[in-house]
Amino acid sequence: MATITKKRVLSDAQFGGVPYGNRTVLPFQLKTNATGAAVDSDTAAAIGSGDKVYVGLLPAGFLLQDAVAIVSDAFTASVIADIGFEYVDGVDSAVVPQDADYFFNDLAINATGRTRMTLANAPVKLPKDAYLVVTIAGAANASVGVLDILIEGELVGAP
Question: Which pTM was predicted?
C-alpha cells in the first residue's frame, strides 16, 4: 500500500498571516418596501422578473466556501432568485468565471425559511472584487420582503 503526500503539505498557508485566523461571514440584505422596490437603492421602481440587484461587495482574495439565505419576510408569490457574483469591472475571468447562480439557483424567496447552499460548486478564490448579485425570476415583486444572505469563506488576500 502506497503513502501519497500532497506537494507543499507542510508549507501551504493556513491563515492570512494573523494568529486568530481568517474565517469570515459577510452579511448582506435585500429588503423591499410595500411596492416591491429595493430599500436604499438607486431606484423607486419595483423589482421585476429578470432584474438584477447588486446587494454588496465580495472582496478580491475572498475564498468562497458556503452561503445561507434567510427569508424572514416572504416576497410576492412565485418570486424566486438566483444568487451569485459578477465582477465589479464588468470583465469576466478565465480562472474564476463570474457565475450568476454560484450560491443558489431558483431559490424560493416567496416563503419564509432558511436555506444552506445546496449547489455542488467547488470553493473558488475571487481574483478581483465582485458584486453579490440577486437575479429575480418567476414574477415581479410587489410586496415587502426581507432576504438576508450570509456568505462564508476565508479572507486570504488579493491574488
Answer: 0.87
- The CATH topology of domain 23-155 is Jelly Rolls (2.60.120)
Average pLDDT of adjacent 10-residue blocks, the chain of 159 residues: 59 57 87 94 93 94 96 97 96 96 97 94 95 96 97 84
Distance CA 159, CA 140 (A): 39
d(CA 157, CA 131): 17
Q: 120-149 in b/e burial notation, b at 16+ Cβ within 10 A?
A: eeeebbbebbbbbbbbbbbbbbbbbbbbbb
Q: Measured between alpha carbons, how far is 24 from 63 in angstroms, rounded to an integer?
A: 10
Grid coordinates given for 103 = 450560491
